[in-house]
Amino acid sequence: MPTYRSLVVRITDRDDAPFEEYSISTNSRQNLATCYIQSHTDMSFQIAISPTTLPFPEFSNSEMTPHLPDFSDMSLTEIEHYYAQVEHWLYPMGPQHIGDKVLTKHLRVLAGRDVNRHQMSLEDRLFDTARWSGDQAQVARALDCLRRFATTAYVGPQSEGVPYQLLATLRLDGKKKYEKQSIVHLDQWAPASHSANGETKMSERLVQGSDGVLRKCGWFFRETNGIEKTFDSLQISPGDGQEDAVPVGDEHDLSTAFADLGADNLAEAQDKLPHGKIEITLERVTIAKERKQAVWQPHEEQDQDIEMGTEGKEGVPHTTARDEGIVQDRFIETIRYERLDPEDKPFATFAFLYRNEETLRKMGMLEALPTGRKQKRKDVFSTITPLSVSAAASGAAEAPSVAPLRKRLAEMELDEEKGLAKKGRDEDGGDDAA
């Protein structure tokens, strides 16, 4: 799974099983992590984002620790300003914090003489002594006690746990308009904001159909027809000293991407291509304390194309699409945010380049399969029911879980291995007989 800048981002199926990743690479100049995943026709997917640990390792000490004033030489007027901020103190002063027998006796004597002073807090009695006492020694003792206590008990204004959160923006297939945005909470003191391990999931989005009805829709891979031949015509040669293979044919977009990057890495070059890509960009933001209920309204920067996934992408046998979704109430929970620095470049970007099995094999990322086995795998995945409205809403059968499909594939592989082993024994026996 790609891990970059203390963040882990995964593409998973509906059962939370992660897609296997190939050719993982990072680019610190662009704060970019890239990899390939294998797409399957009609298989749904979602995105899971989580920090490696909490508190978030990327926070610097200066961001987590508030700057505290130096009370050692502070004047009476200056220190009085801080004592007035009651909410910025860990606890009130008690008799054990005086630490001076002479001063303690003096305060008791004053309290015994005046009922009003007896009802005052120790802090106020010390300020009264430092301000009005004619005994300069007592004035010095009172001011010293106030300084010492402030050094241990004053904590200053506390941030809301962390200096910033992260705004995750999902874009599909190189579209300029985003598909969905979510807040990735980095505050370990706010467990209600996220799951126990800090994971944030992007599993669906709201879409208003042509009928005006608002639906919550998930994503899946849809097969496009008549475009597999593009990759069939590419020549494949191994990269110099690299595990993956690099297409070196005359495909214009790919060669242009290589030229622009000036790099030999396949994932970085393919990341420049707009199609066949799931991209998650993360930016630093501050968020409002309260969440509010509001009527859903389409955002001008969000992709509202209701025909998503109907057009093929040259060179990529799959495209991303939305399912028909479930009807959703128009009142939604909203949270306001502000970018920490509008000029700040993205904190991190994760790009998942999805390709079908055949393409990944031609690129050298998967071992070639015998023709018969390849057809069997195709038959297994052809049993997945296309995504649609839930069975309860439409009466259609639900798509089978991916786990049983994987079990069937594993059983097929085991049967094939047994068949190959038996064939090998038969051949050995024939040679001996000859």
The percent range for strand residues is: 15-25%
Provide the helix percentage. Answer: 25-40%
Domain count: 3
Q: What class would the helix/strand composition place it in?
A: alpha+beta
Mean pLDDT: 74
Please state the CA-atom Rg, rounded to the nearest Å: 32 Å
What coarse outline follows from CA principal-axis ratios?
A: elongated
* Distance from first to last alpha carbon: 52 Å
Low-confidence stretches: 226-264, 266-271, 371-375, 384-401, 429-434
Sheet with the most strands, sense and barrel status: 7 strands, mixed
Number of E strands? 20
Number of helices: 13
Write the layout of secondary structure elements.
Blueprint: E1 3-4, E2 7-12, E3 21-27, E4 32-38, E5 44-51, H1 61-64, H2 76-83, H3 101-113, H4 115-118, H5 122-132, H6 136-153, E6 165-172, E7 180-184, E8 200-202, E9 205-208, E10 214-217, E11 219-223, H7 229-232, E12 236-238, E13 245-247, H8 252-261, H9 266-271, E14 277-287, E15 292-295, E16 318-322, E17 326-327, E18 331-334, E19 337-339, E20 348-355, H10 357-362, H11 371-381, H12 391-394, H13 402-433
Parallel strand pairs: 4-20
Antiparallel strand pairs: 1-2, 2-5, 3-4, 5-8, 5-11, 6-7, 6-14, 9-10, 10-17, 11-16, 12-13, 14-19, 14-20, 15-18
Give a quick summary of the entry.
The protein is an alpha+beta fold and 434 residues long. It contains 13 helices and 20 strands.
